[in-house]
Each structure stands twice: as structure tokens, then as C-alpha cells.
Amino acid sequence: MDDGLRFLTTIAEPRDLKRFSRRELKEVANEVRQAILQNVSQTGGHFSSNLGTVELTVAMYAAYDMPPDTVVWDTGHQAYPHKILTGRLDRFPTLRQYGGLSGFLKREESPFDSFGAGHAGTAISAAVGMALARDQLGGKEKVIAVAGDASIASGMSWEALNHGGAAELDVTVVLNDNRMSIAPNVGALTNYLAALRSQPRLQGAARRAKDLVERLPDPVARVAAGLRHGITHYLAPEETGTIFEEIGWEYIGPVDGHDIEVLMEVFTNVRQLNFPVFVHALTVKGKGYAVAEQDARKWHGVVPFRVDEPNLALSAVPQSQTYTQVFGQAMLEVAAEDESVIAITAAMPDGTGLNAFAEQYPNRFVDTGIAEPHAVTMAAGMAARGAKPCVAIYSTFLQRAYDQIVHDVALQHLPVRFFLDRAGLVGDDGPTHHGAMDLSYLCHIPGLRVLAPRDADELRAMVRWMLTQNDAPTAVRYPRGAAPSNLPELRSPIELGRAEILRKSPDSRVTFAALGSMVTTAYTAAQTLAEQGIESDVINLRFASPLDYETIFALGARSGRVITVEENVRRGGIGEAIAARRPDGIQVEIVSLPDAFVTHGPVPRLKQDHNLTVEHLVNLATPIQLRH
Ligand SMILES: Cc1ncc(C[n+]2csc(CCOP(=O)(O)OP(=O)(O)O)c2C)c(N)n1
User: Fold this and answer.
1) pLDDT tens profile 553-566
2) Which of 229, 252, 276, 346 gives the lowest tally of CB atoms within 10 Å of its CB?
3) Is residue 258 part of a domain?
4) Of all atoms in ligand 1, which is nearest to the CA of residue 178?
């Protein structure tokens, strides 16, 4: 890893940057960029966002005193330069590998990861909290939040700006504005930032930061909150305030986020200010690697690639159809038949498979940006007017819209359809991104129907059923990646609350009641058991809510033993629900994810760790005297 990284190998913590001249800091930045390129081309991971934050990180870390000064990164997918400069260069090759560094921020990983992240829009709130705690506890450190132009548009970021601006806190927000979310950014704020960019302020960012410092009243004289505004208006009477200034943040920018000299000027001065400051830095996503600059969207997250022939490796086609693709196609089919179908994404058109829909039906496609709660309540509004809103959000990100699902959708019986991609374990992104809890946060909501398909054909059938034969609020959850192809052909139609029996025998010793992704596992286990002379039933539950207790316990009564299998934490999952209704004489055992946060790593490895495997099911079902 350290080949030719002359400067980086001498940096154990941000403070070490202080001994370098500004010219040398540029060299450091080049090495950080080189380390990211070398490493991510081998491990895969977030790429273009990290190339964009290199100079910003180097300059900020050289200008501040860390520790105790603290930087909170929003989302964390752009914090690889931070990892490299905070003593993790040696471990960087383990990025996103099982047992290795996380791809996001994690408090357990380093004292410099002052706040964990993975979901967008949290940094400013956390920084405001840290600043309040510091003031209460008598600390002196500086607190900085760095947020992207898409993350800063999320509701929570504005709640925090609203609070922090009024509270006159000593806290700084750095906006890392590269004009991109994963897809091109959306929304009025995006247009506003573009306007700020294209009309640079009369006073340059570095000059303004310096002026503010020079005009700082001494701490004793600075009594009233209003005083600060008087000063800045005096400084720049010719400029109308930006939206940020109007709500209490001193705006400094726009500043070239790749110019270390200017950034150093800005940050060394901003560090001396003691009120809310908003630094608007302009960066280029993919900076320094031509193909990534040209197509930052494609290079947002990458699989391993060849540095010399990048496009070759990236164009590798997946072996079989993914659930995401199947959902995208199914949506096109139902939309062609029904004009009231509207597709909604919260900043994830690529990830949820809605790109083709967006192209074909631009008037029936809505990208809200990173605004999951808004997306859900907006959908409820659409449903109240007779449209058929289809909200496609990853299982993990829908967690933040729980109250909207309860209060705005289910309580009002509004037929919003939810499509939860990445349900279950997602792999390398780890605990912030596993969709391990959706059954627990959805199945107890009265009137909300919850389904999970066993394969691609069943997902297609479920999407159609949800939109043509069902008028209740309904969610379907399906995993990341390819759908299995080993299951019998789909024959029986989807019927409300009815399971599908995939295998049954009068001599069954055990009944597997499996949901969604785990049906293929249970089915393969049953085949293996049959080869050993042990018969078993396999129920594909289809519905997690309402559950088909009748079928489960009818078969369970014959075998005497039900094993429930689901890719969800145990608490609040289907296993618990089935066990709670267990009639006398039937034993129920639950196979599920643990009630714990699961680390990152390859999904098969994680499933092995937590017993969601064919081997475990076979072993469970084999009488003790026959076990190997
Ligand atoms: C709550 C939530 N919704 C969606 C995502 C998926 N996501 C990860 S990064 C990203 C785009 C972030 O864009 P921006 O904040 O501008 O940062 P950039 O990558 O451009 O540096 C999105 C939508 C997420 N992490 N969290």
C-alpha cells in the first residue's frame, strides 16, 4: 500500500500535517488520491465522492487541531481521505473486507470517527449536539460538519441548520458541493446552489473569512447575539444575504474545494470564528481520474477494476437477473396498463431499478432527493387523490419514515405501495445498510400487508397483484442481488394471506416455514434431507403479514415440528409471531438473523456466521442420532 507514498507513510494523525508547507500539502493530496485509486481498484467501494474530498480533507485537517477539534462527516461514503489521514493507511487494503475497515464511519474503528454514519443527513444535527455539549461541559474544541449537496437537502439537515443558526453556536458547516447525488442532484436547493456558484460574491471567500476574523469583537464586548449580524452587514452591505445568512449562518464561499492554498486561508481563519459559519466549497466528483470525472454516477460505487483499463472491468454483466431489474421491468408493465401508477424514489433511481421508468414515464416519476419521510407522506397525499403511488426505497433507508408509514399511510388506510430493495443482508456496506429490521418495523402496523418473493417470477407476480388486486397499504421486501433459479415453477396465483406449499409429505418429520430469500435455502435443505431419507415440508409463506397460520399449523400438526426461516432480526419477525400462536403439540424453532448488528463482509460468509444456511437447516432437521 505504501509504495511511493513518501509523505503519507509519515502521517499517523492529522496533527502531522502541520509540519508541511502548502506546496508539500499538495503532494500529500496527490498521494491520498493515489492511495484511493490503488486501493479501491482492488477492494471496490465508494470512489468518485472520495476523489472529490481529497484537498478539502487535507486542508481542513492541516488547519484545525485534531484532536480535540472534531469533524463529523455526513453519510461517510466520502471519508476515505479522512481514514487515510487518521492512522488507517496500513489497514486501508482491508477496506470493506470481512474483519477489515468499514466503508463508512464507525466509532469503534477510530477515535477520529467521532460520529458513526452510513445514512445521509445526520452530520449537522450531530455537530450541533456536540457543540451544545461542549458549551455545557466547558470545552473549547471546534466542531465541523461536512455535508454533500444532496445530503444537506434532507429534512434533518435543515432542522439542524434552523436550530444551530438560532442558537448562535460555535459550529461550522462545510458544504461539499459537487452538484451530484448518486444521480444528478434534484430540488430547488440544487438550483439555488447553482446560482450561488455562478455568481461569485463580490468579496472572495478567503478575504471574507479574514475580514470576519479582523472584525471579531473581543469576547468580553461580544454580548448580544445581534451584534454579529451588525458586523457582517457592515462588511458587505452590497450583498443580499444568502439563505444561510438569513437563518443565522455566516456564509463564506464559494471556494474552490481543490485549491489547497485558498482552503488553508479559509479554514485557518474560520477556525478563529466563534459563531455559526457556513463554508460553501465547490468540488468535482471523481476529481483526478478522467473516466470518473466524466461519469461520476457510474463511478459512485465500484467493483474492483483495472486502473489502466477501467471501462473493461466495470462493464462486466451480472450472471442472472437481479430482483432490482425484475422490479424495474414489472413496474414498466403495470404502468403501461394503468395511468394512475406513479413511481417514487428518494435519490436512488439507479439502485431501485427505476431508470427505465423515469425515461419512459417522466411525468409519472418523482425523485424527492434524500427525503424518505417526505416521499412517504407525499405518496399518501397522492393515494388520497386516487393515484397509485409506488414508493421504492431500500429497507434500511425506509427506517426513517416509520412514523409516516404509521400515521400518514396505514392509519388512514391509504393504498401506498412500498418496494423495499436490499432487504436482509447486503454485504460489504455492513450494519448501516443491512435491511435486517423491516419485518419488525412493518408487520405490527395494523392493516399494512407485507410480502416477500421467493424468486424473480414471484416478485413479478407480487408487483402485479399489489397494483391490480389489492387496495390496501402494502409492502414487498426483496434482497440485493440475483434471484435464485432452483425453485419449482410458479403455479398458484398470489392470494391475500395465503402461503404456497412447495413440498409436503405424509411422512414429514419437520415443516419449514420460510419467507422470501430463505425459501431457496429451506427448499435445498429439504432436498438434501430427502436424499438422506428424511422427509420434510416446505412452505413459501409469501405473506409476512397477514401470516397464513392455517397452512403452517395444518402441516405442522402432522410433522409435529415447525422451523421458521427468515432474513430479519428475531424480535418482531415472523418466527416470533408463529411461535406465539403455536397450538399444543407443535414445536416451533426460529432461524433468523441475531438480535444484534451484523458486521460487513460477503453475504454467504455472514449467513454462515448466523446459521442462515442449508447445512444448519439440514442439521436442525436431522435426528440427533443420525447427525454426523
Ligand atoms: C437516508 C439515506 N438515503 C439514501 C442514501 C444513499 N446515498 C448514499 S450517498 C448518496 C448521495 C449523496 O450525495 P451528496 O450528499 O451530494 O454527496 P456526494 O456523494 O456527492 O459527495 C445517497 C443518495 C443514504 N446513504 N442515506
Assistant:
1) 999 999 999 999 99
2) 229
3) yes
4) 20
Within 8 A by CB and 6+ apart from 445, the residues are 405, 406, 410
Is 87 in a helix, a strand, or coil? Answer: coil
- Which structural domain, as residue segments, surrounds residue 444? 323-477
**The domain that contains 389 carries what CATH number?**
3.40.50.970
The CB of 148 under 6 Å from ligand 1? The reply is yes
Distance 120 CA to ligand 1 centre (A): 6
Asked if residue 522 is part of any domain, the answer here is: yes
φ and ψ at residue 101, rounded to 5 degrees = -65, 145
**For residue 450, which of 431, 476, 428 has the smallest C-alpha distance?**
476
Asked about 364 being catalytic, the answer comes back as no
CA of residue 466 to ligand 1 center, whole Å? 29
| Cell numbers placing 77 | 461514503
Q: Are both 554 and 585 inside the same structural domain?
A: yes
The best mutation among 156, 181, 374, 398 to test binding of ligand 1, ranked by most ligand atoms within 8 Å of the C-beta, falls on 181
400 is catalytic: yes
Q: How far is the CA of 337 from the centre of ligand 1 (A)?
A: 33
Model confidence band, residue 310 (pLDDT cutoffs 50, 70, 90)? confident
Number of domains in the chain: 3
Question: What does the pLDDT look like over 150-194, one tens digit per residue?
Answer: 999 999 999 999 999 999 999 999 999 999 999 899 999 999 999
Does residue 553 share a domain with residue 431? no
- Select which of 96, 298, 388, 400 is catalytic: 400
Atom of ligand 1 nearest to the CA of 347: 23
Report if residue 451 sits inside a domain: yes
Place of cell 461520476: 296
